[in-house]
Amino acid sequence: MRSFTRAMVLRALPAIILSTGAIARAGDAPTGFDNSTNGFVDQRTFDADRASFEEVEAIEDGLGPLYNAQSCRECHQNPVSGGASQITELRAGHLDRKGRFQNARIPIARGTVVITGRSLVNDRAICPNKDFPDTEIQERVPDRENVRTLRISLNLLGDGFVEAIADQMLIDLARNQCRASRGTICGQALRVPILEAPGQTAIGRFGWKDQQASLLSFAADAYLNEMGITSSLQPNEVTTLCNTAEEPNDKPGEDGLADIDRFARFVRSTKAPPRDRTLAATPRAVRGAAVFHRIGCTTCHVPSLTTAPTGTKVNGGAFAVPDALGGKTIHPYSDFLLHDVGTGDGIVMAAVEHYGRNAYEIDWKGWSDRLVQQTRDKIRTPPLWGVRMRPRLMHDGASMTFADAIRRHRGEARRAVRKFNDLGRSDRQAIEDFLRSL
Q: For the chain, which end, N or C, has fewer CB atoms within 10 Å of the first or last residue's CB respectively?
């Protein structure tokens, strides 16, 4: 077992050290906060898709009736559209008598209607309004829904490359880290439904619970649940109260593309977050990367991954990896797996919310409610690329410094935290400089 671990370390170390530098290597995915395409589409198409991503939705566009934001940019824009933000969403539920998580039941319309099938509790509503002055639909968390959390918005830049990672690579990562750690660190590679390929699944990698594997599915999920806008993949409103827009709200244009298609194409076309080249080149940041690896943080925060070759079919065969995304090395500092690091929020992904009202009527290959229930106290390893742009850390945004965030880790990360606490002040500061360079 020791020889296996040593071999894994020796293979990973060059990527760990080289990725701290300021000079990109051949085969690396393009990076930059420059509003430029990564080559998946031309710049004119990229700019048009970005405009759709930034567009503010109105009630006549289908906004609501329940929603959190009026545009994608509202939750993903730091320092450019597609980046992260300080915006959080509210989730809630409760445990049944057997200790299993149950989605929240949220009464609206003075208790005459109950919203079910979701853990998400929307912060905003379009009613009461001029047309419906007496319709009260604002969601509020009842006392009985006592499992509650906030989740901070995620970075989307570079996620086209993440989508192009082969399922088998993530499965192998989970298997190898579990073997190498003798069962103390075992990421969960969870199969989730692909909305555009009914019956097909893939390893989840997007969202705090890895609830989506496809960027098109992710776009449809967010359009409905964050903005209340229905589409061909998510055609059912959360509530029909106050709703006057024609269904589905998101219809294809003259080019045959709907908004969710443009959103997915925009994200697939973004560059990965770049390093702070000045700080990354400093001796202390370089040393911090080596110490970060030495204490075990890179077991989950994997420095480098390579996307599948051009032409590989992913997303249940619905998407072929293009030249711009295929065979590229990325430096996300994540394994994109689910881990119990002691900060899990107790929430289990809601199938109806993420996959539609008929989620349980479709025979999704390899999707298991039993495996989904295992995710209750797990969180996806957050990619650290671009983390320097985040003043609020961890899934709930409750940690304000890198040291605070590291020390919150427990569970599978307890040994790495113990080693961090045992470091001298200089080494701890070197790790923080390294993280500030990402």
A: N
